[in-house]
Design brief:
The complex is a heterodimer of chains A (482) and B (250). By secondary structure, chain A is an alpha/beta fold. Chain A has helices at residues 5-18, 36-45, 50-65, 104-113, 117-124, 133-147, 155-161, 163-169, 180-188, 429-436, 442-458, 463-476; strands spanning 151-154, 191-197, 207-208, 222-228, 233-239, 250-251, 254-259, 264-271, 285-294, 300-307, 312-315, 318-321, 327-336, 341-350, 356-366, 370-379, 387-397, 402-411, 417-426. In chain B, helix 7 (178-191) links the parallel strand 9 and strand 10. In chain B, 42% of the residues are buried. The model of chain B has no long low-confidence stretch (mean pLDDT 93). The chains are: A alpha/beta (482), B alpha/beta (250).
Chain lengths: 482, 250
């Protein structure tokens, strides 16, 4: 099907009217539906070069050929890809005029997390004052980074300003045909972040999307690409502890990380998307593809994730250890309560010689929550002396929840050393009572026990983030015991 | 200070304490002895507010306040301390962090400012020395991988740190070798003062050689059937419990 873009735009405009969209923002939201035209429209809206459109279209064609997977440890929800709207222009319009209009429950949680008022407003979508701290902070940061040659910008900006870098690395770790959700993301991704750390540069601060201007409204099909050139170092933070609500149920993000010789990337995530009501209705499906490659010798990639939100969390941040002596890590805490489901873990591919990896997974289930660890450690034929250590611990709170472990090991090299440890424990009434008998109430007791359980992972997070994550775990499990 | 009147309590319809009376005044040490199944540990559980125990009759007050109306944590904050017969392991929670949380929760309840890190550390050092507690165990996970003796000694360290009005030692001597027993007893003796009181639950007279009680009570079938001084413990050691049962029956 050939389409003249002008005709197409008119058609879309007509459709919007037909569907009774609010007339003062006629071009801001694309009506639901997914065809090649949708993709052309998105690409055009973003003024993308031809090669990127072609790439999106290839992804879309792969997407069409794929079926939804059937191996996951949960019932796949019905997802109508045609019912999703794939484009919404970043809106500067606030949802609310003041905090008084925001759900009091949400505000209560903000208070417990100790989030400053100005941030509460941004997070809840309240109009902020003309002079807003984080905007000026962000500008200052950008200048400082620019001096070092570090590129940290939106994906859209990167396509315009650094097309050669984007072209070189886009899809090089997660191909557009990798899996159905990655293909969908590649076809329709809205925006995201791009990071490039030049050779030998150590990024002096934690990079966080929070500090990036124009970071809003890219949530649903976000795409992140991080490249650490030889000898570079960066620590990147994604998400925040504040509860995030979104009208869009399906989130299919892609994160690609390239780590060259002697470089190191630390990627930390705190995910607290809306988990749905007590029946699990309306919660986010967080289906994310995250993968990094240690391309050069001595490269290091470390994933840390704290997953407390979403109705379903389904992701396996992975590491390809291609360079000799490269090292990959995966630290995870996943909390499921109510009707939440998590099927998460990692895949580590040992390809180079003397490659090492470490996996620490902590699953906490409460209520009717189901928590699965699924991991693959693959040792290639040339990965002499590869080493992996895996530990996956599960903690159960109550007797209606579940913990499941699916560890896979595939080794083609006899010199590999692989260790796997697993434990399952239950927060017992006797533990709670012991702490009660020392003057600690049940809520605080659970907080202590859970944070003790997850300590090894939380310690991996940058300091400030770790403190927030601790509070988050406690709040997530409030009322789960007793 | 602690006043227990006509206490009836049990688990799941089964009555274990059947009208127990006990008055404890500041500065006193009361030993509670008795045959297996007499209700000694149940008494400790009921006083400290362990769930599943139901009080059907009677009253327990501490300085006039009704303990039975309070949650376990509030009883602790009011000054009740139970040294557990089987201390619980909590992996990943450091002993010191746990104690700091506990102490500051108790202080907050009493309207006191939380201790600063420096003050807390100083207090911890002082108490470690007082009860001869191994500094290495302070930073380990709470009771995790501790030997039986180390766990019991940790209970006494906690007792020293939290400085309760009334401490109940539930068979603290069980599983202790003679050296550990001496250390634990020395600790308790140093912590005894005119403001606090101890209830020591034990099977054996041995502990009472080290911690000399003001009163010895014999608990049998959910009631205190005989009260005496430290010599009663010696008699029990020699003659067992049967003669008391007979005395009660006649």
């Amino acid at each position: 099907m050939e389409n003249n873009s002008t005709d197409f735009l008119e058609e879309i405009a007509g459709k919007e009217y037909e569907h009774g969209f609010i007339t003062d923002i006629p071009m801001d939201i694309l009506p639901p539906g997914l065809t090649e035209d949708t993709i052309r429209f998105i690409s055009q809206k973003k003024n993308e070069p031809e090669w990127l459109l072609e790439w999106r279209l290839k992804a879309f064609r792969s997407f069409l050929k794929m079926d939804l997977p059937g191996w996951q440890n949960f019932t796949m929800p019905d997802i109508d890809f045609q019912a999703i709207s794939y484009y919404a222009a970043p809106s500067s319009k606030a949802k609310y005029d003041s905090l008084d209009q925001v759900d009091p429950e949400l505000l209560e949680t903000f208070k417990k997390l100790g989030i400053p008022l100005s941030e509460q407003k941004t997070l809840a979508g309240v109009a902020v004052d003309a002079v807003f701290d984080s905007v000026s902070v962000a500008t200052t940061y950008r200048e400082e980074l620019h001096k070092l040659g570090i590129i940290f910008c939106s994906f859209g900006e990167a396509v315009k300003e650094h097309p050669e870098l984007v072209k070189q690395y886009l899809g090089s770790v997660v191909p557009h045909s990798d899996n159905i959700f990655a293909a969908l993301n590649a076809a329709v991704f809205s925006d995201g972040s791009f990071v490039y750390i030049p050779q030998g540069v150590r990024c002096p601060m934690e990079l966080s999307t929070y500090f990036r201007i124009n970071a809003q409204n890219t949530g649903q099909f976000e795409r992140t690409l991080i490249v650490a050139d030889k000898g570079a170092y960066v620590s990147y933070l994604e998400g925040c502890t504040a509860p995030m609500r979104d009208e869009n149920q399906l989130h299919a993000a892609v994160v690609e990380i390239v780590v060259l010789d002697n470089a190191e990337v630390k990627y930390s995530t705190v995910q607290n998307w809306y988990p749905g009501d007590s029946e699990g209705k309306g919660g986010i499906y967080n289906f994310v593809t995250k993968r990094g490659i240690c391309k050069g010798a001595n490269a290091v990639l470390s994933w840390t994730q704290v997953e407390t939100g979403s109705a379903i969390t389904w992701k396996y941040p992975s590491v390809i250890l291609q360079g000799d002596n490269s090292y990959g890590e995966f630290y995870s805490v996943a909390v499921t309560k109510g009707k939440q489901i998590a099927d998460t873990g990692t895949k580590i591919y040992h390809i180079g010689a003397n490659t090492r990896s470490r996996i620490i997974s902590k699953g906490i289930s409460a209520g009717n929550g189901q928590n699965s660890y699924r991991g693959l450690v693959q040792i290639g034929a040339k990965a002499n002396n590869a080493r992996n250590f895996t530990q996956c611990d599960s903690m159960l709170i109550g007797d209606r929840c579940g913990a499941h472990t699916f560890p896979y090991i595939e080794s083609k090299n006899k010199s590999a050393t692989l260790e796997h440890e697993a434990t399952t424990s239950k927060i017992g009434e006797d533990q709670i009572f012991y702490l009660n008998a020392r003057g600690i109430d049940t809520e605080k007791a659970v907080e202590l026990i859970v944070n003790g359980f997850a300590k090894e992972v939380l310690n991996q997070l940058p300091m400030e983030f770790a403190v927030e994550a601790q509070k988050l775990l406690a709040i997530s499990l409030e009322g789960s015991v007793g | 200070m602690l006043s227990i009147k006509n206490l009836h309590a049990g688990v799941e319809e089964k009555e274990i304490l059947k009208g127990l009376n006990l008055e404890v005044k500041p500065g006193e040490v009361h030993a509670i002895m008795g045959p297996n199944g007499a209700g000694k540990s149940s008494l400790a559980s009921v006083l400290s507010g362990r769930p599943n125990y139901e009080v059907t009759e009677g009253s327990v007050t501490l300085d006039g306040k009704d303990l039975l109306e309070m949650s376990a944590e509030d009883r602790a904050r009011e000054g009740v301390f139970l040294a557990f017969q089987y201390p619980i392991e909590i992996p990943g929670v450091s002993n010191i962090n746990f104690l700091k949380t506990a102490l500051n929760e108790i202080r907050q309840y009493r309207g006191l400012e939380p201790l600063t890190a420096k003050e807390f550390l100083a207090l911890s050092k002082e108490k470690q020395k007082l009860v001869e507690f191994d500094a290495k165990l302070v930073n380990r996970s709470l009771n995790e991988g501790f030997s039986g003796g180390e766990k019991k000694r940790n209970e006494i360290f906690q007792l020293a740190m939290l400085d309760p009005k009334i401490a109940i030692l539930d068979e603290t001597d069980s599983g202790l070798d003679i050296d550990a027993l001496r250390i634990v007893s020395r600790g308790v003796n140093k912590l005894r003062n005119e403001q606090n009181a101890f209830i020591i639950i034990t099977h054996y007279q041995r502990l009472l050689d080290y911690i000399v009680p003001d009163f010895v009570h014999v608990l049998s079938d959910g009631k205190i059937v005989k009260t005496g001084d430290k010599n009663l413990a010696l008699t029990l050691e020699e003659k067992g419990y049967d003669w008391i049962k007979e005395e009660v029956a006649s």
